[in-house]
Amino acid sequence: MRYKDKVAIVTGGSKGIGAGCVKVFVEEGGATVVFCSRTGQEGTALEAEVNRKGPGRAVFVRADVSRVDDIRHLIDTTVERFGRIDCLINNAGWHPPHRPIDDFSIEDFRSLLDLNLVSYFAACKFALPHLRKVKGNIINMSSLVGSMGQAGAATYVATKGAITALTKALAIDEAGHEVRVNSVSPGNIYTPLWQEAIDAAPDPARCRADGDAAQLLGRMGTIEEAGRLCLYLAAEATFTTGVDHILSGGAELGYGRKSRR
């Protein structure tokens, strides 16, 4: 019950890391969580699941964060219903299939920027007047590859690097309002997106084994582990702002595999 009587918003909350945040904030934090996604069926199913367990509560709002009006509606609905926002978790985003820059169009990049980056900016902008009133906090979901790079992912890596930079700049601006702004950079977290990659691989078992072996700990992280880090940042890390928190199982340590031509 570390976040009892608090209200959190999670974008992209119906599956993956977003769902982990919803579950942990409701079940372990005792918070009220308003979460959104584009898919209504998954959202309502998760809402029912976590509300059966409690002790907090979850409310699903259907929204496409690539649409600014949907983001504004999400923020306004939360305030109208619950009167406050204590934490904003910007999580919604997408990782396109891996391919060289030659195979990405300019429009591909612009669309990804709208989804992965502009949506974060818009949600921060609309939520901050409410967060300032309660000295709340923002958690932006970045990625380990935003700092270390990734093959065949120039567009995605660019958006994640920008999220980390936005977080640090916003932390400076909002310190005067006592609003903390942090980011989380996950490495390999086992999500439905990862399972899709495994299923599509020529050798699914090898793909899963390689995914697990990329970490020093010999496994991928769980969505609940990501949620617990976010709950810690929101509820307990009260002297932490402008920090990118790596959640990687040690994937970035030591010498990685090198490509040769």
Characterise this structure.
There is one protein chain. The chain is built from nine helices and seven strands. The mean pLDDT is 95. It is globular, with a radius of gyration of 18 Å. The longest helix has 29 residues, at 106-134. The N and C termini lie far apart (54 Å). It is α/β, with parallel strands linked by helices and 261 residues long. Helix 1 (16-27) packs parallel to helix 2 and helix 1 packs across helix 9 (223-235). It has helices spanning 16-27, 40-53, 68-82, 106-134, 145-148, 154-174, 192-200, 204-213, 223-235, and strands at 7-10, 32-37, 57-62, 87-90, 137-141, 180-186, 244-247. Helix content is 49%, strand content 14%. It has one domain (7-190, 222-247): 3-Layer(aba) Sandwich (Rossmann fold). Strands 3-2-1-4-5-6-7 form a seven-stranded parallel β-sheet, with helices on both faces.
Concise synopsis of the structure shown:
With 261 residues, this protein is α/β, with parallel strands linked by helices. The protein contains nine helices and seven strands.
For the structure shown, list the relevant keywords.
single chain; 261 residues; alpha/beta; Rossmann fold; 9 helices; 7 strands
Topology summary:
Elements: E1 7-10, H1 16-27, E2 32-37, H2 40-53, E3 57-62, H3 68-82, E4 87-90, H4 106-134, E5 137-141, H5 145-148, H6 154-174, E6 180-186, H7 192-200, H8 204-213, H9 223-235, E7 244-247
Parallel strand pairs: 1-2, 1-4, 2-3, 4-5, 5-6, 6-7
User: Can you tell me the overall shape?
Assistant: globular
The strands making up the biggest β-sheet line up spatially as 3-2-1-4-5-6-7
**CATH class division:** Alpha Beta
Report the end-to-end length measured between terminal Cα atoms.
54 Å
